[in-house]
Amino acid sequence: MAIHQEPLARAESLPSHLTSTEAFRWEGIDVHPYKETGSHFRSISRQILFPGAHDLPVELRYFEIDVDGHSTLERHHHAHLVVIVQGSGEVLIRDRVEAFRPHDVIHLAPMTWHQFRANQGETVGFLCVVNQERDRPQRPTEEDLALLRSVPAVAQFIRP
Amino acid sequence: MAIHQEPLARAESLPSHLTSTEAFRWEGIDVHPYKETGSHFRSISRQILFPGAHDLPVELRYFEIDVDGHSTLERHHHAHLVVIVQGSGEVLIRDRVEAFRPHDVIHLAPMTWHQFRANQGETVGFLCVVNQERDRPQRPTEEDLALLRSVPAVAQFIRP
């Protein structure tokens, strides 16, 4: 069996059934504005639905981006597994801008530049699976930005 | 960082973006009837949306249970993390029968008896995260069944 990182007490205190109280809100789960140093993101919130337990060393989070909001443009060594659950929008994956819609599954490999934008007039919501242990996201340097902007569609997408 | 079990080639061959072609079907993903020895399940299909890669040693599967269908009554040492994405139904979790609806999150700890039933007149669909490495499910013995049936709501729920 795989790794088991957290004390059993933590796993035992987890509810087995987290009920949805209204659309994309859950009983007892706080809605966190997604805060970082700086202002690299806009109108995005986060809820932690599973903190990792047993042989599942992963967190499950739900992110919601209001219309015209976006996530931070970043990359990191850890991977993301994303399932869109509401709304259409666009996502930067490395050097491509791709449209997404509900139920699309997006797998962001390590060190892939990425950014989600709710740029289609709809609130966007997605589930995101990440490892419990993960490195801090990296923001692009001026050199990284110059490279990203060398692709016109990307330059248009990541504009402030 | 966490374990990394699969060869890089496997991860590199994964699509970064799996598009939803219609409701709960994905481009290039086969729909598998959920087969086992015996007839412990009914009207359930499975799609594998992510096989595990990088620092995410987990599979993401989508299961769909047609109206009046059910999953196998089983337990195992590996945990399940489930997110309901369509339909209402009921689930057995250890010795309780609980109603669920879309977006409920159900966390099945190791060795928890469980069974999902689409018994509310609706097709049920759920995402399920499991470890890539996992033990085989156990079916209840006659002794286990007797214990389960000692709770009237459970006896009613698991009836053939």
Description:
2 copies of one chain form a homodimer. Chain A is mainly beta. Chain A is 12% helix and 40% strand. Chain A is built from 3 helices and 12 strands, in the order H-E-E-E-E-E-E-E-E-E-E-E-E-H-H. The first copy, chain A, has helices at 8-12, 142-149, 152-157, and strands at residues 17-18, 20-22, 25-26, 32-33, 42-50, 58-70, 80-86, 89-93, 96-100, 105-108, 114-117, 124-131. In chain A, the strands form 3 sheets. The first copy, chain A, has a 6-stranded antiparallel sheet, with no helix packed on it. A 3-stranded antiparallel sheet of chain A has the order 9-8-11. In chain A, a hairpin with a 2-residue loop joins strand 8 and strand 9 (96-100). The radius of gyration of chain A is 16 Å and the shape is globular. The termini of chain A are far apart. At the A-B interface, strand 1, strand 7, strand 10 and strand 12 of A face strand 1, strand 7, strand 10 and strand 12 of B.
Question: What would you say about this model in short?
Answer:
2 copies of one chain form a homodimer. With 160 residues, chain A is mostly beta strands.
What topology does this entry show?
The structure is a homodimer of 160-residue chains.
Chain A: H1 8-12, E1 17-18, E2 20-22, E3 25-26, E4 32-33, E5 42-50, E6 58-70, E7 80-86, E8 89-93, E9 96-100, E10 105-108, E11 114-117, E12 124-131, H2 142-149, H3 152-157
Antiparallel strand pairs in A: 2-3, 4-5, 5-6, 6-12, 7-10, 7-12, 8-9, 8-11
> How many β-strand runs of chain A?
12
The dominant shape of chain A is globular
Read across the widest sheet of chain A, the strand sequence of neighbours is 4-5-6-12-7-10
**How is the quaternary structure best described?**
homodimer
Number of helices of chain A: 3
Biggest sheet character of chain A: 6 strands, antiparallel
Structural class call of chain A reads mainly beta
Secondary-structure element sequence of chain A? HEEEEEEEEEEEEHH
